User: What shape does this take?
Amino acid sequence: MKPTAKKGPPPARRKQAPADEPSEYETYYEIIRHIPRGRVMTYGDVAHSAGRPLFARRVGYALAALKDPGVPWWRVINARGQISPRGWGGESADQRDRLALEGMVFDDEGRVNLKVYRGPFPIKTKPKRRPR
Assistant: This one.
């Protein structure tokens, strides 16, 4: 007997942004570019500002894929006020040094006080359009 294919809806396809709209990652990068020196946002804050409040993890993926040196990636930290560990290590110390140079103070557990350094909210930006 020949096995039959399971019937059901076709596999979901990722929607591509129209050519004149920025990519999801570029939207996150544009928000991060607007975080002022001496301030931080959490991954969730960036996602929320982008209109995707449940996509904090995707902000992390976007930062892992970042190639633009003009995006101040070090100003994005986790919701506990800590620097998230990197899978390959090394950059956590660099991120802490950069934040300290901007005047942030860390407690004994490696956290910054989000009540002091977090914000501003929400960052409203008009992301750059993707080149055609």
